[in-house]
Each structure stands twice: as structure tokens, then as C-alpha cells.
Write a structure and sequence with these properties.
heterodimer, A: alpha/beta, 7-stranded mixed sheet, 6 helices, 22% strand, B: Rossmann fold, 2 domains, 6-stranded mixed sheet, 12 helices, globular
Chain lengths: 185, 392
């Protein structure tokens, strides 16, 4: 089965990194992967997208992703400014970093059929890391919404990518985001 | 035992160069240079390789330094892209003319103007006739595998020609994929140190690159053509040895669904992967379509192409570079002349696509397949040269 994930964030928030971390984790799970950025000018603060493809079989397709199964909104300020649900498959999943209530979010996203999960990743990052770096938190929320990779593999690759205390703290962030992520009914 | 790694196309090429134990890398480290040399310079910095890394002031100088090192008997690697490759153009002919078996990773990107940093084949097609062996890869795995094989092909005494291993800019260079890498020891067994038939030696001086007017220039150029002709059996031999080591089968041409296809798409690089995915879907609907992907573009694999055609009635050739004023794109011209010379009645049309990184979508490719199936049915080509995915 092929799962296509689109990441929304801003330049400097680690969108490329998180799209790759998901791919590395899927590799550990024995999957085939692709992770690539939206190829544009790299400007801090500008809206950016990243992509991850995960499949049980070799992936030969090399076009952009037009109909993602999962959309992950890393930056909450993008909701309402960028069309997040563009091309999302009918029964797709949205994982959003937000502190807004679910009704407002649903209205803003205009996605009636999608499965929506929310998590206050900004709060978790500030609590655990002391800094608003919330890309890794979204990995935890994503696994809760759609178990396309194992949490074990995510932890392993995060510890490898960020050795020492930084890795440990990020693993804690991911665990908390996994626990706190909730489905919007 | 092979190891699974997540590598971008750039990283895969750098990793292969590392395992190939290159003696010298000369490169210009600024845009449009690629992450290939950035990754390699980290290996140098970390002491993981014993390579002389020469940071030069331009791509022209990079290739000049590579030529000097290669003539001294070194195993030499470099990488380039876009305007950098264009600036190198003059030295590319000298590398092949002096028979320097340099291997270069080329990340294919557009040429200015207007300024664009994205993927297309304009850069390499602009240097198509430089006398190098030219290989195009579909994914990171192929890029890694072909670099390892490229040194062995280039340095063979029957060939002694430089080789470019091409990957699509951004689409492969910046995309992380699953790559099976082999043990250092296995690579070392496959690729022993370079044995140069002649090398610059201060104690036994000789001249290279001497003046050669009307008396011998033509003969030297004729020999280069012969050297390229000698490459196919060597490529065969290296592909077989590589298969023995890795189980991976490489050749001049890779095909999909050709056993019963009536219509096919022929293209280079990563687009072939997307075409295979579309062909797979169409074949599951009972449509007889296939994909032809030349791995080796120079020397052009005419004989192999003729052998793969089977029952094909129509062929769409996809070019990711433009040949202004020519009847077709470069790849299609090669295909058409190969077919014409051999009396093949196969109907061909050319689709130029993806310039400046414009994405070629599965929907675009499905439309091309549909058109090819129409041509197969009617025998009529309505538009011999068309532009796909452009606003007109």
C-alpha cells in the first residue's frame, strides 16, 4: 500500500527534516520511501511544503504528490491562508497543530469528510524543549492519527539524528504529542 | 551484506565516490554546484577518505585540474550542474580527447536565460557531443550503482574515456530514497585501484595535448569514435560482474511491459519511473503499453533498441530539453534515425516536456500513452513534435 503525506509549515521550521525523519523511520520498518521538499526559493518564514511517500513495494513514481492521503499542518498560523486540503483524498487524514476548538478548525479547513486529529504541539514543545520547535511533535500526532510507521522507529531515528539530551527531549515531545493527539468528532 | 540507507541522489553519488576510493576530487564549491561535493568534502574533513580535494575558482578550472590528475594516473571524480557544466564545456572535450577516465556526477538542470535552478536535461544535452560516455539514472539506487560501475568502464584500457552519471535536478538530487549500499570490502573487490596504461612522470617526460593540425587531428578524433564503439562490450562485462556481486541487473536499456506492448513511451531518467507507474495502471486495465528507458545514452544503444521493439506499433519519445529549430529533440532524433536506418515502420512522435523543472504528472503521461495507443490503432501521427505541460 502507498501512503502519500504532505507537510505544511514555514521556512525554518524543519519541514524538510521532519519529512525525512518519517522516511527514515519507515525504512527501519522495512518500507520503501521517498521524501522531498517543494522545490522553491528557501526563505525563512515563507510557507513551505514537504512530502513523504511510504510503500510496501518499490516506488517508481517521481512526480509531485497531488492527492495526499495525509496532510500534516505543522504551523498553525497557516490555517486559513494556504489551501491545506487541496487534492486530499476523500477519506484522507488531517493532523493539525492547533489550540483552536474543533468546530472553528473544521470550518477553517473546509474538509467535511476528512478524519481530523489535533494536538497543541506548540504548547508541548514549549513545555519540554523550552523553544517553539514543534516539527517532531507532529510525528507523534501523525502516528496516532495514522499508524504508517511505528513509534519505536520514530524514536530510534530521532535519537540518531539528534544525539544526546536533544534527542531524548524530542522523544519525550513525540510521546506526549502521541498521547495528547485527539480525533475531532 | 548490503546495508539499507536513506540517501538523496546527491548523497548516493557521493557515497559511491567514497567507496570507489578516488584519489582526486576537484570542484568549484558554489552554486550551481551540488550537494555531491559538499557531502564528499565532509568525508575528507572527517578523514574517512584519503582524497586530495582541490577547491578551485571555477568549473572550468575544476575540469582542468581533473584532467591533470587523471593524466598523472589518479582515479578522479567531480560533479557539476547547469551553468557550471556549460562553463566546463571547453574542458569536457579535452578530457575525452586526452582519454582521461574521469567520472562526473551531473545533476541535470536548466540553462539560463531566464535564470532557473530546476531540473531538465538542457545542460547535458548542450554537451552531448563532448565524447563522454553518458548514463542516465531513474533513482538514487541506480545513481549509486552506476557510479561504482562507471569507474570500471572508464578506466578499462579498451575504453579510457570519461563518463557522466546523470540524475534529474531536485527530483532525484534532493529526494531521499531507499538505497541498498554494499560493503566497502565488496566494492574494493569489484573495483581495484586504477591501473593507468600511461601516466605523467617527471623522470620519464612525454607530451600530451600537443598541436595536431591537418596531419593528425582527424585520426585522433576518429580514434575517439572507435573508443566509444569499444565501450559496449566493456559495459556488458562490467554489468555482468556487478550482477555477480549485487544481484542487480544493468544494461544499456531497461524496459517495462515490452513483451506484448503495442504502444510505448521512451524517456531518460526519473520520468521513466513515473511512466512505469502509469503503464502498470493501464496494463491492469488490459491496455498493452510499455516503457523503454535507455540507461546508456552515449554511445547510443541502437542495436539494443532495435532488439527491444517487439510488436510495438507506436512510440512516444520524451525529451526534457529543447533543440531549437531542429525537427525533434535530441533523444527523439537518435531514435528516429536508428529506426529509419533499419527500415522500421514504427510510428514515432516526440513530446518535449518538463523544461525548467515543470513537473511531468502521471496525468500528462497517461495522456501521452493514450495518444500513442491512438497512433498504434490508426497509424497516423497528427503532431510529430509537441510540447506537454506548457501554457500556450
Amino acid at each position: 500500500m502507498l501512503v502519500e503525506v504532505r507537510w505544511h509549515g514555514r521556512g525554518g521550521q524543519g519541514i524538510v527534516t521532519v519529512s525525512r525523519l518519517l522516511a527514515y523511520a519507515a525504512l527501519l520498518d522495512g518500507k520503501y520511501v521517498q521524501a522531498f521538499p517543494e522545490f522553491g526559493p528557501e526563505r525563512r518564514g515563507a510557507p513551505v511544503t514537504g512530502y513523504t511517500r511510504i510503500s510496501d513495494e518499490p516506488i517508481t513514481i517521481h512526480s509531485h504528490i497531488y492527492n495526499p492521503h495525509v496532510v500534516v499542518i505543522v504551523d498553525p498560523t497557516l490555517i486559513g491562508t494556504v489551501n491545506m486540503t487541496l487534492g486530499l483524498v476523500k477519506d484522507g487524514t488531517i493532523v493539525a497543530n492547533t489550540e483552536k476548538d474543533s468546530t472553528t478548525l473544521k470550518q477553517n479547513l473546509r474538509a467535511e469528510k476528512a478524519k481530523i486529529f489535533t494536538v497543541n504541539a506548540t504548547r508541548i514543545a514549549l513545555d519540554v524543549l523550552g523553544r517553539p520547535i514543534y516539527n517532531t511533535a507532529m510525528l507523534g500526532a501523525l502516528v496516532k492519527a495514522s499508524p504508517i510507521v511505528t513509534l519505536d522507529s520514530i524514536d530510534k531515528v530521532v535519537k540518531e539524528r539528534f544525539p544526546g539530551a536533544v534527542g531524548e527531549k524530542n522523544v519525550a515531545v513525540i510521546k506526549r504529542a502521541y498521547e495528547e493527539a485527539e480525533k475531532v468528532e | 551484506m548490503p546495508k539499507i540507507m536513506g540517501l538523496t541522489g546527491d548523497e548516493a553519488i557521493a557515497y559511491a565516490a567514497k567507496q570507489s576510493k578516488v584519489d582526486v576530487v576537484a570542484a568549484y564549491p558554489i552554486t550551481p554546484q551540488t550537494i555531491i561535493v559538499e557531502a564528499f568534502s565532509e568525508y575528507v574533513h572527517n578523514g574517512e577518505v584519503h582524497t586530495e580535494f582541490v577547491c578551485v575558482e571555477s568549473e572550468h578550472s575544476a575540469m582542468s585540474a581533473c584532467i591533470g590528475a587523471s593524466l598523472a594516473g589518479a582515479r578522479v571524480f567531480t560533479a557539476s550542474s547547469s551553468q557550471g557544466l556549460a562553463l566546463m564545456h571547453e574542458m569536457l572535450y579535452i578530457a575525452s580527447g586526452l582519454r582521461c577516465p574521469i567520472v562526473m556526477g551531473v545533476v541535470n538542470r536548466a540553462l539560463s536565460a531566464p535564470i532557473n535552478i530546476h531540473g531538465d536535461h538542457s545542460d547535458m544535452m548542450g554537451s552531448r557531443d563532448c565524447g563522454w560516455i553518458q548514463i542516465y539514472c531513474e533513482n538514487s539506487q541506480e545513481a549509486y550503482d552506476w557510479v561504482l560501475q562507471a569507474f570500471k568502464i572508464a578506466e578499462d584500457h579498451e575504453v579510457l574515456l570519461p563518463v557522466t552519471v546523470n540524475i534529474d535536478g531536485f527530483i532525484l538530487s534532493h529526494a531521499l530514497e531507499r538505497v541498498e549500499v554494499y560493503d566497502d570490502g565488496d566494492v574494493e573487490k569489484f573495483l581495484s585501484i586504477r591501473n593507468a596504461p600511461f601516466k605523467l612522470d617527471p623522470d620519464n617526460p612525454f607530451t600530451v595535448g600537443a598541436l595536431c593540425f591537418t596531419d593528425y587531428y582527424f585520426e585522433i578524433k576518429r580514434q575517439q569514435v572507435e573508443a566509444l564503439k569499444n565501450a559496449p562490450p566493456v559495459i556488458d562485462k562490467v554489468n555482468k560482474e556487478f550482477e555477480g556481486l549485487t544481484g542487480k541487473k544493468y544494461s544499456y536499456i531497461n524496459t517495462y511491459g515490452l513483451e506484448d506492448a503495442e504502444a510505448a513511451v521512451l524517456c531518460l531518467g526519473s520520468t521513466a519511473g513515473t511512466a512505469k507507474a502509469v503503464a502498470k495502471k493501464l496494463r491492469s486495465q488490459g491496455k498493452r503499453v510499455g516503457v523503454i528507458k535507455p540507461w546508456v545514452y552515449r554511445p547510443f544503444p541502437s542495436e539494443h533498441l532495435l532488439q527491444t521493439l517487439g510488436n510495438l506499433k507506436a512510440l512516444a519519445v520524451l525529451d526534457r530539453a529543447i533543440c531549437p529549430g531542429a525537427p525533434y529533440g535530441a533523444l527523439c532524433s537518435d531514435v528516429v534515425s536508428t529506426l529509419y536506418d533499419n527500415g522500421k515502420q514504427l510510428k514515432v512522435f516526440n513530446a518535449v516536456y518538463g523544461l525548467g523543472g515543470r513537473d511531468i504528472t502521471p496525468f500528462d503521461i497517461e495522456a501521452i500513452f493514450n495518444e500513442a495507443m491512438d497512433v498504434a490503432k490508426t497509424g497516423i501521427v497528427k503532431e510529430p513534435l509537441k510540447f506537454v505541460g506548457v501554457r500556450e
